[in-house]
Amino acid sequence: MDGFDNLNASEKAEATELQRMIAIEQQKAQFQAQVHTFTDVCWDKCVDSPGSKLDYRTETCLQSCVERFIDTTLTITNRFTQMVQKGAH
Questions:
Q1: How many beta carbons lie within 10 A of that of residue 47, not counting itself?
Q2: Per-residue model confidence as pLDDT tens digits over 65-78
């Protein structure tokens, strides 16, 4: 039972589309939260004192920090996906 049993075909299609749009917005919010998190973490780690422009060391540190953060997130996500797929079999 999907909660749409009492709806006609048009209403079911609208409800399905609404669920899809909500899922997309949730993904956008999760992405923005991730960006906010690694911005905070990397800023605190790499920026000693803000100036009018970033020096080479700070820029390199920020780039490396963000790349590590993204790589780690992807690794964890892929591992979790593998665990879920193994559990489904």
A1: 14
A2: 999 988 998 899 88
Q: Computed from CA positions of residues 71, 74, 76, 78, in that sequence, does the dihedral angle turn out positive or negative?
A: negative
Calculate the dihedral angle through the C-alpha atoms of 60, 66, 69, 71, rounding to the nearest 10 degrees.
Answer: -90
39 within some domain: yes
* Predicted structure pTM score: 0.60
How many Cα atoms sit within 13 Å of 70 on the Cβ side? 9
CB 65 within 8 A of CB 46: yes
Lookup: tokens for 65:
């920090």
Q: How many CB atoms lie within 10 A of CB 41?
A: 14
Domain range for residue 54?
9-88
List the one residue out of 24, 27, 19, 65 whose CA is nearest residue 44: 65
- Please count the structural domains in the chain: 1
pLDDT at 13: 85
